[in-house]
Write a structure and sequence with these properties.
By secondary structure, the protein is an alpha/beta fold. It has 12 helices and 15 strands. 33% of the residues lie in helices and 21% in strands.
Length: 362
């Protein structure tokens, strides 16, 4: 029997196709160490996206692959992940304490974008990432209500940076923390854009892997400011299956394409409604819309979420679904979407701009 070699192990693992990246396992990048002790092998694998929810499943699948090699009787896989900053728009420098900014957008209101944003942030955290959530809807902030943090006010440090409000294990910032909850903000576009930049850059974010930005609907001032001033690694567009929502979602995708922000995929919200009395499922807003718009724009349909009263009730009460019912079917769907989104972002080139020094000529 031929002795076990590292090359045999690498060749075997390279046959595994990652369901989230749709590519073979990158053995050069992912496999950090192989220890061979007779017929026992230990392998350290580091992925580029968080996957706590399937960590054991992946380890078992890879162990089975390795055990198929002649001469190996025991295989131990140590799986972890390391999230790095990905490339952003040209000429915009990344942020030191925020590795990746992901914008959550919709062409129109009422499609559940903010609900999706908060649950996606919580799902990424549940998968093992450090996550922040920035409410960029200056005129109609909703994340304080959804996180159960209404009435809280952030503290500032001596450098006049404000600390984010921590809720359900994620960092958050919203204009709602700085004003009275019933006070309307009657501001013009330049003031709104300035407020967004201050909320982003004057917050003392703590070593985030992902910062989710919950954008207001449309393609206006906030979106333009984001494209020109904020280092965004990727965007996700939320829609419902109905034609009127798809029409505006298409505009949102076109906007991101125009400003060179990659669209990671589409999330179809309110896909089906299941009757609580009889269990009958019905596509209230139509069917196939999310898949159609994703295919039209050559992006992924990241997932489909149901029209379910529990989602509304839980976010209205400040206890989002992923936080309070982590094991139910809806929460598991959000976590699957989180893994897909993070894996799509991990395919992007790395960004080193935050590491470059500022050069001043005097």
């Amino acid at each position: 029997m031929a002795p076990v070699s590292e090359q045999k192990i690498l060749t075997q693992l390279a046959t595994y196709v990652d369901k989230y990246t749709a590519k073979p396992l990158d053995t050069k990048q992912a496999i950090k160490k192989i220890t061979i002790n007779g017929s026992t092998v230990q392998i350290d694998i580091v992925l580029a996206y968080p996957c706590a929810g399937i960590q054991q499943t992946l380890s078992r699948e890879w162990e089975a692959l390795v055990l198929a090699i002649d001469g190996i009787e025991q295989a131990n896989i140590n799986l972890s992940w390391n999230i790095v900053a990905r490339s952003v728009q040209t000429s915009i420098k990344g942020m030191a304490n925020v590795k990746n900014i992901i914008a959550i957008a919709s062409g129109k209101g009422g499609v559940g974008k903010s609900t999706t944003a908060v649950n996606l942030a919580l799902a990424l955290a549940a998968e093992g990432a450090q996550v922040g959530l920035l409410d960029a809807d200056i005129h109609g902030p909703s994340q304080a209500l959804m996180l159960g943090t209404q009435g809280q006010h952030p503290q500032a440090n001596p450098e006049k940076k404000i600390y984010p409000i921590i809720a359900h294990g994620i960092q958050s910032m919203s204009i709602a923390y700085l004003i009275d909850k019933d006070a309307p903000l009657v501001w013009r576009g330049p003031m709104v854009s300035s407020a967004l930049q201050q909320l982003l850059r004057d917050t003392q974010w703590q070593d985030l892997d992902y910062l989710i930005i919950d954008l207001p609907p449309g393609t206006g001032d906030i979106q333009l400011t984001m494209a020109q001033k904020i280092p965004v690694a990727g965007a996700i567009v939320v829609t419902t299956p109905q034609d009127i929502a798809l029409l505006d979602a298409q505009k949102a995708i076109a906007m991101f394409n125009k400003v060179n922000i990659p669209v990671l995929g589409v999330i179809e919200n309110m896909s089906t409604y299941q009757c609580t009395a009889c269990g009958h499922q019905q596509a209230v807003f139509g069917s196939g819309g999310g898949q159609a718009i994703a295919a039209r724009n050559s992006v992924d349909l990241l997932g489909q979420l149901p029209l379910d009263m529990r989602i509304r009730e839980q976010t209205d009460s400040g206890a989002p679904t992923v936080a309070v019912e982590p094991g139910n079917e809806i929460s598991l769907t959000y976590r699957e979407i989180a893994r897909r989104s993070a894996a799509k972002l991990a395919l992007r080139a790395k960004d080193y701009s935050a590491k470059f020094p500022n050069i001043v000529v005097e």
